[in-house]
Amino acid sequence: MSKRVCAVMLAASLAFASGAESARAESFGGDWTPEQRELLQDTLSLSELRRDVERIAEEQEQLALERRQLGLEIDALESRVADNRELTATLVRAQYLQSRRPMLLSLLNARSLGEFNRLYGYYRIAVRYNEDALLSFREDTDALESRRGALAANSERLEQVKTGIEEQQRRLRSLQEDIDSGLLESGDPASLNRLAEELDAYWNNVGLYEVDEYFSQLASASSELPDFLQSSGKLKVSGLGTRYTIELTDQELNGFLRSRSADFDNFSFAFEDGRVIAEGRRDRLTLRIEGRYTLQTEPQNAVLFHVDKLVFNGLELPESTRRELEQKYDLGFYPQQVAPVEVNDVEMQQGRLRIRLQLTL
Questions:
Q1: Using one digit for the tens of pLDDT, what is the confidence trace for 9-53?
Q2: Max CA-CA distance within the chain?
Q3: pTM summary value
Q4: Coiled-coil regions in this chain (predicted)?
Q5: Residue 175: CA atoms inside 13 Å, Cβ hemisphere, count?
Q6: How large is the average pLDDT for residues 289-310?
Q7: Of residues 309, 313, 323, 235, the one with CA closest to residue 276
Q8: Residue 329 is part of which domain span?
Q9: For 149-158, what is the mean pLDDT?
Q10: Would you say 314 and 36 are in contact if contact means Cβ atoms under 8 Å apart?
């Protein structure tokens, strides 16, 4: 995979650059003292918070550009609507006051077929002009209302983004203070700082890409899951053909995943009461995902997967990373792809996932 090749090359460069000290990076996920673990956990969270702040700042910049563009569009539409308002009002009054009646009378008084056709042509041009003018005015007013609504939504989102970036910056400062304090209180601050720097480099150059690759593969396999359920006979019918049940064991799910990609040979799902645990290992990287399948009814009926906890090499990644991966990769599945049904209930028990569905016509 291109991402993995890139990650391996970066890892090799990192190892070469750091020399003997890089050997300590091999211990990522190994035994750490409480002091080391606390510092490394804060370092990983700090790295991800910085990335989240950058992402939010990019969104803020994009929203600001959209806001300026919407402002220009609104100004142009307001000017056009104002210019055409008087003409439109005149046309509307003309319709109510029947000011076109003389034209109709002139048609009736035409002295020849040729004159009638000529007058009728003028009449049609006038009517078409009036209709086009009224239609254009309505389209402009509708567009103006739409742009004003988009501007209001943009302003609301911009305020949310501003609040979000301020909150993340406060968390960044607090975490940095914790790290600095931990280093000062350490018996060997230089060594501890090097370990933190190695983790930060390993995560940003290798770990981040590997975790992203896992989620990408899971999302790809999830999109194929409905076809697997249909072809493997997992859809059971009851209730005179109106109710369905899907039962899938974690072993069956693991077999399905491994049939799709060798990446899952060392990765496995386990269903427990109310939650799903997925764990995998590759080279120096270990990953643990804790989550749950939930029923969603709007905007469409589906079974979605939510990431409640994400642990990289024994260190928990922050909420911002979980949220980003959950939004980027859809790990849910959609039973409507199997049959015209909707999900009524999702249940996870020891080693088994059960989904109850109802026929929809």
A1: 334 333 333 333 343 444 455 567 777 888 888 888 888 888 888
A2: 113
A3: 0.67
A4: 46-80, 158-185
A5: 20
A6: 87
A7: 309
A8: 225-359
A9: 86
A10: no
Question: HSE on the CB side for 137, CA within 13 Å?
Answer: 18
Determine the residue type at 126.
A
Q: What is the pLDDT of residue 13?
A: 38
pLDDT of residue 96: 45
CA distance 354 to 248: 7
As a residue count, the chain comes to: 361
Q: Under a CB-based contact definition with an 8 Å cutoff, are residues 246 and 236 in contact?
A: yes
pLDDT value for 288: 93
The answer to whether residue 346 is domain-embedded is: yes
C-alpha–C-alpha distance, residues 218 and 310, integer Å: 15
Rounded distance between C-alpha atoms, residue 273 and residue 253, angstroms: 16
Q: Which residues pair with 309 in a beta bridge?
A: 290
Asked if residue 60 belongs to a domain, the reply is no
The closest of 297, 218, 309, 208 to 256, measured between CA atoms, is 218
3-state secondary structure 213-224: HHHHHHHHHHHH
- Whether 178 is covered by a domain: the verdict is no
Q: How many domains does the chain have?
A: 1
